[in-house]
Amino acid sequence: MFTPSAAWSNLLVSAIALAPLASAVPCSSCSPTPSTSPNSTILPYLNSQLCIQDRLDDLLSRMTLEEKAGQLFIKQIPAGINGTIDSTTLVLDQGRNLTTAPLINEKLLSHFNVNNALPAKQMAEWYNRIQRLALETRLQIPVTIASDPRHAFADTVGSSIASGQFSKFPESLGIAALRSPELAEQYATIIREEYLAVGIRSALQPQIDVVTEPRMARSGQTFGEDANLTASMVVALIKGFQGTELGHTSVTTVTKHFPGAGPARNGNDSHFATGKDNTYFGDFLNYHLIPFRAAIAAGGRQIMPSYARPIGTKYPEVAFGFNKPVITGLLREELGFEGIVVSDWGLITDQAIIGVIEPARAWGVENTTELERAKMVLDAGVDQFGGEIRTELIVQLVIEGHVPESRLDVSVRKLLEEKFLLGLFDNRFVDAEAAERVVGNPYFARIGNETQRRAYTLLTNKQDILPLRPTDGNKFYAQGFNSSYLSARNLTVVDSPEKADFCFLRTATPWEARGSPFRQRYHEGRLDFNATERAAHSALFNSCPTIVDILLDRPAVIPEIAEEAAALFGHYGASVDAFLDVVFNKDGWKPEGRLPFEMPRSMEAVEEQVADVPFDTVDPLFRFGHGLNYTRPALCS
Ligand SMILES: *[C@@H]1O[C@H](CO)[C@@H](O)[C@H](O)[C@H]1NC(C)=O
Ligand SMILES: *[C@@H]1O[C@H](CO)[C@@H](O)[C@H](O)[C@H]1NC(C)=O
Ligand SMILES: *[C@@H]1O[C@H](CO)[C@@H](O)[C@H](O)[C@H]1NC(C)=O
Ligand SMILES: *[C@@H]1O[C@H](CO)[C@@H](O)[C@H](O)[C@H]1NC(C)=O
Ligand SMILES: *[C@@H]1O[C@H](CO)[C@@H](O)[C@H](O)[C@H]1NC(C)=O
Ligand SMILES: *[C@@H]1O[C@H](CO)[C@@H](O)[C@H](O)[C@H]1NC(C)=O
Ligand SMILES: *[C@@H]1O[C@H](CO)[C@@H](O)[C@H](O)[C@H]1NC(C)=O
Ligand SMILES: *[C@@H]1O[C@H](CO)[C@@H](O)[C@H](O)[C@H]1NC(C)=O
Ligand SMILES: *[C@@H]1O[C@H](CO)[C@@H](O)[C@H](O)[C@H]1NC(C)=O
Ligand SMILES: *[C@@H]1O[C@H](CO)[C@@H](O)[C@H](O)[C@H]1NC(C)=O
Ligand SMILES: *[C@@H]1O[C@H](CO)[C@@H](O)[C@H](O)[C@H]1NC(C)=O
Question: Which residues form the signal peptide (predicted)?
């Protein structure tokens, strides 16, 4: 016997109070010169009693050209072992190898992204060490740390990064599958709290590319195929991360990849030359702008252009980061975006990634020099160069008169204003002991675990086989699962399907391994299983009633599984425990997800659809929004 729990929403009793969003003091509410005991030894820009615009004016007036150039770059660095400043990872800079420390005290960078995960306390200690290093620079400009998404459950690290101790949700597709802006805001609020605890103040998300090309390689971290659904999600996420105004407990957002990386030709990823084209043969560019308009209206602070270049529009066929009519014309003038534009990583310099030299993503302007590329990016209206440290190019552009220093000031002012608004100048350290308590705390982890369960999307359920009854004596055969783990969950596991009452098959959307190890992180190519794999699946399905559990990081083309398996689940990143709880309806857990994209019936249908147009595969296997409910609870034995 077991008792189904109350509805999930009744479980959401906050175990710890979320920090209220405090916003920065606006200029109107503080006097330029504090009346009470001014400390004449504090420089105006370091004086928290002055208003931000005055502090910015003061700081900018003190900066050398080199110090300004340093602000224009954000570079990935690792958090060092045991929370130390990493001294092993080398980046080549003009024939010299640099580590973290000289990036701060020689190149004068103050923006970094970190993608590895340490235990929370060490992560916070690392962050504090980085800030202490920055305090030793001439102007003491605090460091801003950014991160790619790191809150998804993953068996293996893919294009989102290791979650370590952070709470584990499904990928953002799973948030979209639940269709709830309230949940999306709560999700972002939890990420914000965990980021704040370790000093991460910039989220390199939401990724609001609309998946109109089913093969699009980075679909997993999007909100799917529907621009309106994506728009409702991005508004909720920005509210959760930033609050209504950017303040001392906000995390700033970098909405990406403008103007939408969905229409990738053949789905090939735009990190690589074979994926440089976005095609707009359906004339649907405006559809992809819907979520960006929503993000701008919601006050999203930063936007990242896509690597790709547009084919089939009125715009020049050069990568969006170099594309002045797109960045200045469309994004700034037409859509009215006044925030920071940060380029995607590596537009200028060829760089080694996991041991392989990857070319600069200067798509359509490959033959330009590095200096010309830097100028084009600035001229396009981009404020900051991602994944680069080429400060000397900026200095040269100004000294040689190609770019006026006032152009740098426009971007530097915005970038520093962000630090002031986030409160980094006034409160630059975090409490490492508190980080240990906040990150992955039982309440946050539970919401993540619950969301993994709820996002489960039930695609087929022949003869209502699900939910399985928790009958003692049933025998299970499992592929793609750790059998010892299932045994530890008190299931009787047998070693062949013939001996089993039920079989479980856990798999993932097919993809083609192409090229370098880095490229293989982006799942490209066919979405269907090959003949060998299909034969093996059929043999299993013919031997025993099989529950298939497929990771949908792209819309799989699996008509034969829908036809032959006893039941088919899609998930978007979920633990084995989440799967079992949903399969057995344990504590009342049931699939609530609805497909965030349509699932095509064949690769021919995929090849025939138009890359920029949604919902246009012929006779899809499952439509957008498909998702069955359990029609009965699991019965007691
Ligand atoms: C003034 O600021 C300096 C530097 O932050 C500090 O060391 C000193 O104690 C302050 N003096 C007063 C009177 O607040
Ligand atoms: C990290 O900390 C552990 C435990 O204190 C210690 O044994 C190890 O030597 C440290 N590693 C490094 C590289 O400092
Ligand atoms: C920089 O470091 C890399 C990786 O260790 C090494 O292969 C290369 O030779 C170094 N280059 C210089 C100039 O020291
Ligand atoms: C999206 O929303 C717009 C404005 O509300 C509406 O006109 C349009 O039909 C919607 N599109 C879809 C696919 O729901
Ligand atoms: C996509 O990548 C594959 C594999 O590298 C290549 O064969 C194909 O031509 C690419 N498509 C385009 C449009 O470049
Ligand atoms: C770049 O130069 C190569 C070799 O000179 C040429 O084949 C190619 O078309 C040029 N590419 C562009 C975008 O101009
Ligand atoms: C979340 O799920 C994981 C994996 O099943 C489990 O180990 C962990 O205890 C769960 N945490 C909470 C707070 O429920
Ligand atoms: C499989 O599960 C068992 C029991 O939980 C665990 O000890 C073991 O490490 C797991 N193996 C793998 C490869 O994850
Ligand atoms: C498995 O069964 C044992 C013995 O009845 C029980 O103590 C344990 O809690 C069960 N474990 C799970 C994961 O249900
Ligand atoms: C089918 O895919 C598997 C990987 O799952 C691969 O090992 C095998 O070589 C492929 N077979 C054919 C015929 O392409
Ligand atoms: C499934 O249940 C939800 C919530 O009760 C309901 O809105 C939806 O219409 C149901 N779907 C189907 C296919 O019955």
Answer: 1-24
The string of pLDDT tens digits covering residues 107-118 is 999 999 999 999
CATH for the stretch 449-608 = 3.40.50.1700
State the burial class of residue 446 (Cβ atoms within 10 Å of its Cβ: 0-12, 13-18, 19+). Answer: middle
- Per-residue b/e over 165-175, b at no fewer than 16 CB within 10 Å? bbbbbbbbbbb
Closest ligand relative to 34 C-alpha: 1
Q: Which one, of 255, 321, 266, 264, lies nearest residue 294 by Cα?
A: 255
Cα–Cα distance, 282 to 271 (Å, whole number):
24
The closest of 576, 561, 457 to 179, measured between CA atoms, is 457
pTM: 0.93
Backbone φ, ψ for residue 277 (5° rounding): -100, 130
589 neighbors 259 (Cβ within 8 angstroms): no
Ligand 1 closest atom vs CA 40: 1
- Pick the residue whose CA is nearest to atom 2 on ligand 9: 490
How close is the Cα of 519 to the center of ligand 3, in Å? 23
Q: Which residue is catalytic, options 86, 209, 344, 383? A: 344
Instruction: Please give the average per-residue pLDDT across 442-463, as a whole number.
Output: 97
Residue 550 near residue 558, CB atoms below 8 Å: yes
Out of 577, 579, 586, give the residue to mutate to test ligand 7, the one with the largest number of ligand atoms within 8 Å of its CB. Answer: 577
Alpha carbons 278 and 259: distance in angstroms, whole number: 10
Q: What is the pLDDT of residues 501-553, one digit of tens each?
A: 999 999 999 999 999 999 999 999 999 999 999 999 999 999 999 999 999 99
pLDDT (tens digit per residue) in 324-356:
999 999 999 999 999 999 999 999 999 999 889
Work out the number of other CB atoms within 10 angstroms of the CB of residue 156.
Answer: 7
The pLDDT value recorded for residue 448 is 97
